[in-house]
Amino acid sequence: MASEEASAKKIIAGDKYRSFLHDEENNIQWRHGGPPTYDDEWPKGSLEEIVQNAIKSWEMELSHKTRREGLSAEETLKIGSYNALLKNSLPKEFQYYKADEETFESSHEIFRSAFPRGFAWEVLHVYSGPPLISYKFRHWGFFEGPYKGHAPTGELVQFFGFGTLKVDESLRVEDVEVYYDPAELMAGLLKGQSLSEHSSAAASLSCPFSKLTTK
Q1: DSSP string, 117-164
Q2: What pTM was estimated for this model as a whole?
Q3: What is the pLDDT of residues 74-94, one digit of tens each?
């Protein structure tokens, strides 16, 4: 038991992206049993690394914690990041993703299924540093799993966007604004053939002799 606790403390101490988030470790409830991990992508101490630190910390809290001290955006936490970012006011018949019909869990399961190897997010350029950060980002992954009735294509699906974050001295996010075209994402996902059509096509190509019977 002692060795397990020591290993856990070592992992937390080495997690530079969310070191301050473990101050209240005993009060945190995680959705998937523990905090996520992120790999280094920018040189240590660079402005890009600082910005990526702040944004991934915010996303981690939003997507992985079931309880968060001092939370003011309860609705965002409840519906999840995908639903919050894909929610729109278009008529239902024109909505390619109906956020109102998805829960936090179902929305994340949809994209975990579509991108089994992960749906990566990265900072491409930083225009201004804290306390008001502005940046360009890319979200990308390989469409290798089904998406809402559409077969995977195996192709790269990605979209680009811009965002601003207002942060405090500890890089805790106080306000977020994200600007992007969700059609970039959905165009790649809806490109996959309908699974019902795919099944029908496969059936039509089956061996004709398999249906013959002998008398």
Answers
A1: T--EEEEEEEEE-TTEEEEEEEEEEE--S-BTTB-----EEEEEEEEE
A2: 0.64
A3: 666 666 778 878 888 888 888
